[in-house]
Amino acid sequence: MAHPAQLGFQNAASPIMEELLHFHDHALMIVFLISALVLYVISLMLSTKLTYTNSVDAQEVEMVWTILPAIILIMIALPSLQILYLMDEINNPHLTIKAIGHQWYWSYEYTDYENLMFNSYMVPTHDLNLGDLRLLEVDHRLVIPMESPIRILVSAEDVLHSWAVPALGIKTDAVPGRLNQTTLITSYPSLFYGQCSEICGSNHSFMPIVVESTPLKHFEKWSKMMISS
Fold it and tell me: I want to staple 207 with a disulfide (CB 3.0 to 4.6 A). Which of 57, 61, 89, 104 is the partner?
């Protein structure tokens, strides 16, 4: 989850988020180098007497500011495309879950199980237990097995929503009448918090997402309990 005064991203909890963090650091270093170069050139021009002001032809300079930006763009584009394809790759998921956005709550359906579906509402402030997070805790969490590829089908019942869990590197739009899909793999057991990231109405900020990653045996026990109830 996010912390007060946090400047960077949340810690990665999935392989995709780890790649996104590495790409962010890679791109940020390039931005820092470009900014330093521009500031150096500006300071040099302010502190140096300008000469050759009538020159209209500088082939070397033209080549540098044409080739260098092209190399920089290639250095950014190649890892970006690699991550893009990794995010779209879905091979033999162990579990498929349908997440549907409503005004203003989420409903989940485990398509591989019969009668395993539920609504997930935010817990009101006056009903929170000691240690629960205000505006982030829900009455029914999305429970998934850890270290297993999970396919999430995202849609909406009424208006545009967005299913987003920052620690897992997921942000998928929920569009009425359309199914979007994404995939996730959690690296360790934990709770991961998210929120609807598309302004969907007056209670937009009151439809949180809580993903609970558990070992497989705990997930099987939970699923049997939910089906029997």
Answer: 104
